[in-house]
Amino acid sequence: MGVAAAGGDATRVHVPGALPGESVLATVEHRSSHRAEAWARLVEVSTPSPHRRAPACRAFGACGGCVLQHLDYAEQLRWKAGRVRTIAAAQPALCAVPVADCVASPRPLGYRNRSKLVCAPARGRDPAAAPLVLGAYAPRSHDVVDLAGGCRIAEAPLDDVARTLRKVLMGLNVTPYDERTTTGDLRYAVLRVNHRGAVLATLVTARPAWPSGPAVAAALAAAHPAVTGVVHNINPSRGNAIYGPDDVTLTGDPSLDDEIGGVRLQLSARAFLQANRDVAALAYAAIAGALGVEPTDVVVDAYAGVGGIALTLAPRARAVIGLEENPAAVADATASAALNRAPHVRFQAGDAAAGLRGIARADLVALNPPRKGCAPAVLAEVVRLAPRAIAYLSCDPGTLARDLGWLATRGYATRSLTPFDMLPHTPHVEVLAVVGSR
């Protein structure tokens, strides 16, 4: 998405499809009533960027996923590093901190280990030929873009499994859920693949009763031996959350084991894991290298998820404590510790700040919070523990800069910032900050 100035005023105009440095003709379709921002529709590219490329995916533009796919990959990396430098320069505590070049994804395409597909009625098509679609929401709408032609960022064999699933659903006359009428059965299909190519399928319905579910699971597993398990998740809510609180195993194994940088991880149906296994391994290794764990160290991993960072740091540490709010993730992380034969690693469920209050000492701390960053109470507890170093992996450079500024006022200086391209062809960038006590 390009950002331009509008005429003679200070309004920032967002133009999807435009690239930095281009001259374009665009029509403003919406202005914010709260701030000087507007959104426009691209009409014509008058002067194209030399870095503009033909998108790899046929659904580009209609699907809201890979909005930078028409930008040369090397230029994407430069743009992301530049974005981090701009944000850092605006924070007094970070303006002199070196920002490394963005670490590239080894696979710019075919990297994503999970496909989240919306099941919807086929509108504007012959319902007899294609009564449902599996796809993604179009930008700023709940219209579903059919991804029958495949998704170029998905790992193999996710596209093949998705195409087979669609045929199975149509063959068994499964009705897609319609959010406007709240009728129908299937809402979402989430397909996760591990490092060996095994697939766990999670099928989400609005109601607990799904008579077709066992037959769908059996047919999918029979057609694809790579499908090692099919789970039925029930989500009756009217919101945008994909998952509900309850799972039922329809066939096979309800979890999937994966491996990141030599660490084995158990993943249940709703588990969160970084979508790019290769870049996650690079980031975890960078955390381990930056912290320099010693054999006497007690390490705390806040927002531990399924334990990837904690278990990467475990081999050299005396003890590792992982804190995670989601009990299901804690169960996965605990099972992963057993897989890695790491009895000195323990995970506990609950609020991060409360968990930190129960810890007497920590030599090193790893932080990997959600997009909103760390709560002030979490940062205060980290400072109380007085670790010699902190590794903060963030999925939002803005909230990272805010939190690093807060830590700087408490005696913790940021030594380096390293962007990682976890999601190529999107504006998303992860940043690793290495922080030390003065």
Describe the structure.
The protein is of the alpha/beta class. 24% of the residues lie in helices and 30% in strands. The chain is built from 9 helices and 20 strands. The protein has helices at 73-89, 158-171, 213-223, 277-291, 308-313, 327-339, 352-357, 376-385, 397-408; strands at residues 2-5, 12-15, 23-31, 37-47, 114-121, 132-137, 144-146, 186-193, 199-205, 227-234, 246-252, 255-260, 263-268, 298-302, 319-324, 345-349, 364-367, 389-394, 412-420, 430-437. The strands form 4 sheets. A 7-stranded mixed sheet has the order 7-6-5-8-9-10-11, covered by helices on one side. It has a 7-stranded mixed sheet with strand order 16-15-14-17-18-20-19, with helices on both faces. The longest helix is centred in the first third of the chain and has 17 residues, at 73-89. The chain is globular, with a radius of gyration of 23 Å. The chain starts with a strand and ends with a strand. The relative contact order is 0.11.
